[in-house]
Amino acid sequence: MQALYAQLLVGLINGSFYALLSLGLAVIFGMLNIINFAHGAVYMMGAFCAYFLLNVMGIGYWPALIIAPIAVGIFGMILERTMLQWLAGLDHLYGLLLTFGMALIIQGIFQNYFGSSGLPYAIPDELRGGMNLGFMFLPIYRGWVVVFSLIVCIATWYLIEKTRLGANLRAATENPTLVRAFGINVPRMITLTYGLGVGLAALAGVLSAPINQVRPLMGADLIIVVFAVVVIGGMGSIMGSIITGFALGVIEGLTKYFYPEASNTVVFVLMVLVLLVKPTGLTGRATT
Amino acid sequence: MSVLTDDTLPAGPRSIRDEMIVFAAMAALLAAVPLTGIYPFFVMQALCFALLACAFNLLIGYGGLLSFGHAMFLGSAGYFTAHALKVWGVSPELGILIGTVGAAGIGVITGVVAIRRQGIYFSMITLALSQLLYFIYLQTPFTHGEDGIQGIPQGYLFGIFNLAKPTVLYYVILVGFLGGFLLIFRTINSPFGEVLKAIRENEPRAISLGYKTDQYKLLAYILSGTLAGFAGSLKVFVAQNASLTDVHWTMSGEIVLMTLVGGLGTVFGPVVGAFVIIAMQQYLAGFGQWVTVIQGVIFVVCVLTFRRGVVGEIAHYFRRSL
Amino acid sequence: MINRISALLLGTALAFGASSAALAQDKAVKIGVLTDNSGLYSDLGGAGSTLAAQMAVEDSGLAAKGWKIDVISADHQNKPDIAVNTARQWIDVDKVDIFVDVLNSGVALAVNNLVKEKNGVMINTGAATSDLTNTQCSPNTIHWVYDTYMLANSTGQALVKAGGDTWYFLTADYAFGHALERDTAAVVLKSGGKVIGTVRHPLNTADFSSFLLQAQASKAKIVGMANAGGDTTNTIKQASEFGIVAGGQKLAGLLLFINDVHSLGLKVAQGLNLTETFYWDLNDGTRAFSKRFSERMKNKAQPSMIQAGVYSGLVHYFKAIEAMGGNPHDGIKVVEKMKSMPTDDPLFGKGTIRVDGRKIHPAYLFEVKKPTDSKGPWDYYKLIGTTPGEQAFRPLSESACPLLKK
């Protein structure tokens, strides 16, 4: 039983990354109607950004937690301005193809310069060590990841669902022409939204840097799992994507305990089941 | 909700006569390859991928469904054929049949799930399903994990044709490719193909006309998967191995790229695209990871400025459909 | 149209290749370095292997004796089909005589078949699979540096002897991981140890925490990592987070290279046990070579055992073809000649090549140093045991190699 609690907790940690990434995807999808295939690549860029800040400029973990998402977010906004915006009016699938191409470029360039074996990023001294919870030894850093991601997720939800800015945003998703008529700069809003989604992915990257090696392909496989998470949860609701993210992390953690062989397929199997029972996803609206 | 807007569709009426002329020219050219001293293995590999891309194109170009998991058919059929040839020692024709039927089976199972959503969801679901299969193949013993199935005997097709001889193998692959191509060609010109196109253009209207669109889409998906599997089975005889590479998502991406470069929804585009991409991989192999970057750049450039693809542009210029 | 143009281009390119091959002389050989130039293993082989091959050519002095030796290299991207295509073209069109490096087991087995079919030569310095000299052995292949059997054998034996008699395995859930676990467990049992548990994790797992918790709960003295590449480095990194080593358990890497230790950093990797057959700081010979090598590397890296093996293997190959006098294009004959001569080079010392193609040399068990004991970059290992070559590798009596039945 003790081991089970430990696995539940560990599952929450993974769930944090799923939640942050699927939240970013949902935010982007809501506004741009694009599935951001480059999401794994920008997640990786976040981790690399933290690495450079530390090793080139001597800037540590805490500032990196703010600087890296902003830097990568700005990079994302440049991508949106220079490329993605030209796809407005075309089929959404072109957005998927374009971002897939961008992911290949970004990952390829990083692989060229940094190889594939990964770079180390140390846990900040303040969060080093662990706590003995009685039923497990919890590294403090991992506890921090869960708490911090939860805060970020809820803050994002609040921003979009409860503030004026968020209201404009949602309105622009429903009816861009009307919102423009109110004097709101819709294209700028789209750019900012893409920057926000990308920034969330980069933040997840910084958080994961001390846990996983900083590797050019760290996001490539992860993103496919997150896609499945998104299909399960449906991208209609912000809260939905957060909850599904955490929940699937926990389910995956339990699988690792009861039947580890299936732990990397369980999310996909769940996706199949959900599609068979409720094709729109657990919280999704009927969209095409 | 159509993938191919006016911007991408070739203008002008479709002319089956034109297409048949181009087809005859293509067949004659390809048949002459062994006489030219061109390295046959390159062309054989390209032919397998060309058929694969054509099968993929059937789904996206005529059904409007972008599958991001077509590698699962290629790889699965490859594994089935390889296993049947090597372990069960069956004849080549039976091996191809087993691989193709197996791919069809996978098409039925995954199709029932994937067809429940459209648009980008369909893409994500096919991607996730192929990743699921990838993990399964990684763990099942018969695929030999990362080592793959190696040293597959080529054998004698119908007991007569010695597939170990490059020239014989070449013509067998060519016949397989042309056969698959004609089947696709026939499909898109059939009433079935017309209904598919109608669904692609406007699904609600097709439904209101009384078509069970889901069944049409499922059938197109299975047909596409089966033909992709056929290409995978043929490829086993060329490469003499079956490995995880062919089930990985990067392979699915390459299939999309080939079709995109050649021209989505054009008859001959995927063939041209496959030759271009395979040649590029072959001649740029020395550049290492830059190949990935170059592929990415091609994706971006194609999507931003070159959505008709090579053949689509040519067809547009001549105001013909190709 | 496009078809025809590219066909024409192809035709001229190939005609060109053929005419230059026609000029080939009797004393000309072409070395093909088939490796991973960009992927997961590019630090282990890659550009370093090509450099090692060039250094072997320069040091051989054969050019002065009228030999013409070319080195070409290509990236197999860890894909067996790309590797076989490249290799086939190298043999058919570019007239490559010998393949070196060829890391990645899947790639190696695929190329092994082709080289046998085409009667070429392969000195495999990169692949781990011991099948290359077992069921899949070939008269055209020599497996130079290491294999899974040797790694399991050396690490398993030495650790049990040092008191690590209870083992828990963290195994990558695919054929390679299973084989590594099976071989190591056999050695552990034979040496008087006990295996108290195993957990199978999927390949390319990002998060090992739940598996590590299970290993920790088992209270085994040794946590054996039957995985490779990114999985191993991730395990080590997260093990340090969960305090596995600090809690008194030991981590044993069954397939781990100095480049992995380099990327992990000593802070995380300290205390690890692992086996290699080459280390740059072993003796004067290895130090002299490594100094020249690292000076020419872009990132000043020291040679890995795979890269050192390329050099060592080619040195022996050159001796053999020089002794043959010329016309070294019959693969089986060249390999037979190589097997008949004892090997000797500054990197791997004196050794032999067995009938099954297995190169025999000592295996070294290392412990990764504490950061405070390390005198500088790449000063990572402390030698804690040596297994003589005859005991390190799979004995011929256990081998299923068909060549032995002749």
Keywords:
heterotrimer, B: 322 residues, mainly alpha, two-stranded antiparallel ribbon, 13 helices, 71% helix, C: 406 residues, alpha/beta, Rossmann fold, 2 domains, 5-stranded parallel β-sheet, 4-stranded parallel β-sheet, 14 helices, 43% helix, 19% strand, disordered N terminus
Q: What's the number of structural domains of chain C?
A: 2
Helical content of chain A (DSSP H or I, runs of 4+): 55-70%
Do you know the CATH topology of the largest domain in chain C?
A: Rossmann fold
What proportion strand of chain C?
15-25%
Spatial separation of the terminal alpha carbons of chain C: 55 Å
Note the overall shape of chain C.
globular
Describe this structure in words.
The complex is a heterotrimer of chains A (288), B (322) and C (406). Chain A has 288 residues and is an all-alpha fold. Chain A has eleven helices and two strands; from the N terminus they run ααααββααααααα. Chain A has a two-stranded antiparallel sheet. The longest helix of chain A is centred in the N-terminal third of the chain and has 31 residues. Chain A is globular. The relative contact order of chain A is 0.22. Chain B has 322 residues and is an all-alpha fold. Chain B contains 13 helices and two strands, in the order αααααββαααααααα. In chain B, strands 1-2 form a two-stranded antiparallel sheet. In chain B, a hairpin with a 3-residue loop joins strand 1 and strand 2. About 2% of the residues of chain B have low confidence. Chain C is α/β, with parallel strands linked by helices and 406 residues long. Chain C folds into two domains: 198 residues, 3-Layer(aba) Sandwich (Rossmann fold), CATH 3.40.50; 161 residues, Rossmann fold (3-Layer(aba) Sandwich), CATH 3.40.50.2300. The relative contact order of chain C is 0.13. Chains in contact: A-B, A-C, B-C. Chains B and C meet through helix 1, helix 2, helix 5 and helix 11 of B and helix 1, strand 2, helix 3 and helix 4 of C.
How are the SSEs placed, and which strands pair?
The complex is a heterotrimer of chains A (288), B (322) and C (406).
Chain A: H1 2-32, H2 39-55, H3 61-82, H4 92-114, E1 130-132, E2 137-139, H5 140-162, H6 164-174, H7 176-181, H8 186-208, H9 222-233, H10 238-258, H11 266-277
Antiparallel strand pairs in A: 1-2
Helix pairs in contact in A: 1-5, 1-8, 1-9, 1-10, 2-3, 2-4, 2-8, 3-8, 5-6, 9-10, 9-11
Chain B: H1 16-36, H2 40-63, H3 71-88, H4 92-114, H5 119-139, E1 156-157, E2 161-162, H6 166-188, H7 191-201, H8 203-208, H9 213-239, H10 249-262, H11 269-283, H12 290-305, H13 309-318
Antiparallel strand pairs in B: 1-2
Helix pairs in contact in B: 1-6, 2-6, 2-9, 2-10, 2-11, 3-4, 3-9, 4-9, 6-9, 7-9, 10-11, 10-12, 10-13
Chain C: H1 2-22, E1 28-35, H2 46-60, E2 68-75, H3 80-92, E3 98-101, H4 105-117, E4 121-124, E5 141-143, H5 148-161, E6 166-172, H6 175-190, E7 194-201, H7 209-218, E8 222-226, H8 229-241, E9 250-253, H9 258-264, H10 266-269, E10 273-276, H11 284-296, H12 305-324, H13 331-340, E11 343-345, E12 349-353, E13 359-360, E14 363-368, E15 381-387, H14 389-392
Parallel strand pairs in C: 1-2, 1-3, 3-4, 4-5, 6-7, 6-8, 8-9
Antiparallel strand pairs in C: 10-14, 11-12, 12-13, 14-15
Helix pairs in contact in C: 2-12, 3-4, 5-6, 8-9, 12-13
